Amino acid sequence: MFDSLSELIEKIALGEDSTIEFKSQLSSRDSLADEITAFANAKGGVILMGVEDNGDIVGMENSQLNEDEKTVIEVCRDSITPEVNIFTEKLLIDDKNILKIEVPHSLFVHKSPNGYFMRQGSSKREMPPEQLARLMQSRSQARIINFDEQFVPNTDKDTLQRELYQRFIGATTGDDEVNLLCKRRLLVKDNDKYMASVAGVLMCSNRSDEYLHHSFVKAVYYTGTTRDANYQIDAKDFKGTLDVQIIDAFKFVEKYNKVSATKNIGRIDKPQYSMRAVFEALVNAVVHRDYSKHGSTIRLFMFADRLEIYSPGALANTLTIDSLPYNQVTRNELLARLLAEIALDDNANKLVNRRSFLEGRGEGVGIILKESEQLSGKKPVYEMYGEELCLTIFAAKSLQNDE
Which of 37, 139, 152, 240 lies 20 to 30 Å from 103, alpha-carbon distance? Predict the structure, then answer.
């Protein structure tokens, strides 16, 4: 918003309105939080620090500029629920430093320490109960219906990497490329501006976690049976596009998947886990997680006796724990379609016996339950902890123990 310096200077001359707010200095963290949430709950806007209410540019010292930028980021993270993702920019106007804070129109309803605010004209207003209820209803529906097709604030076409999105639209350029990206819902047009969709960022950017915080897989391997740092052997954060996250997490499990063998003639190998079941579990966790939830990652824990995978989000629609093996409901349909178009390499193909990441037959949970129980003798367990789904797969005992 107001991307060119000349446009911004013209806007300052016209004064404050529903899209822009002036602040000569940062006086109160709570007051700043109120202003940011007011813009986020409305149509977005810009806060300029170093500008008087009447439009006079007073600027600030370099040290204060850096300190205020740090404070603004802390306010968005610590004083607003849920966190607002802003864009800050340091500018020089008439040889004076100002801080531009761009607040995007949000998919969420945000609360600051003093309540729920909405920008109206040149000031903020606390929302009355009926207005707040309407806003919550409309934005809740936007999150539930095709959240993976919603735009991501502070993104544009350049957020998406050509070598990644050409997997889905082919080798095209110019207007044809933009049209195809929009048709595949990798780009979304909002108020004459093109922005990357949630699915676009997750499938076509190696830096997806910078735009959708916590959209990665966290994996930890313990030699014991509890989460104890004394027994932690390895820990990794797997980032990048979702297909890369799945493969990297899959290789992590494969690395620590112990294989026992008989000593008799006619060697028999027995792994702790079916890698086919593990692959299905990882794909399900990535495809069905709720990407609208802030502060939660997919977490994978390997212990001496079991593997646990936690995926953020309550079960979609009418699904229950008991109906998981029988019903197929996809929370993120666009992500599912995109993953179905990506072929597995030969090594992964041999291990999991499928051609692409997702084949849409609804067999995933059945494979997890059947193949894991055949190995370990114990049926995997699905459990809900609040709004987080946990899958526990039990490790098969060593053949030496069986003997």
Answer: 240
CB 258 within 8 A of CB 355: no
**Average pLDDT in the chain:** 88
Measured CA to CA, the distance from residue 20 to residue 11 in angstroms comes to: 8
State the pairing for strand pair 45-49/20-23: parallel
389: part of which helix (H) or strand (E)? Answer: strand 388-394
DSSP single-letter state for residue 327: -
Residue 181, H or E segment: helix 174-183
If you write DSSP's letter for every residue of 127-172 in order, what string do you get? PPHHHHHHHHHHHHHHHHS-GGGSBPTT--GGGS-HHHHHHHH-S-
Closest CA to 300 of 210, 191, 219: 219
Which residue intervals of 290-398 are DSSP H helices?
333-340, 346-352, 364-376
Q: What residue ranges define each of the domains in the chain, with the CATH number in brackets?
A: 5-144 (3.30.950.30), 157-206 (no CATH), 217-402 (3.30.565.60)
DSSP code at position 197: B
In SS3 terms, 63-104 reads as HHHHHHHHHHHHHHHHCCECCCCCEEEEEEECCEEEEEEEEC
| Cis peptide upstream of residue 82 (ω within 30 degrees of 0) | yes
Look up the pTM and report it. Answer: 0.69
DSSP result, 222-286: ESSSS--GGGEEEEEEE-SSHHHHHHHHHHHHHHH--EEE-SSSS--EEESS-HHHHHHHHHHHH
Q: What is the pLDDT of residues 165-224, one digit of tens each?
A: 999 998 887 778 999 999 999 999 877 789 999 999 999 999 999 888 889 999 999 999
Q: With residue 114 as reference, give the H or E element that holds it.
A: none
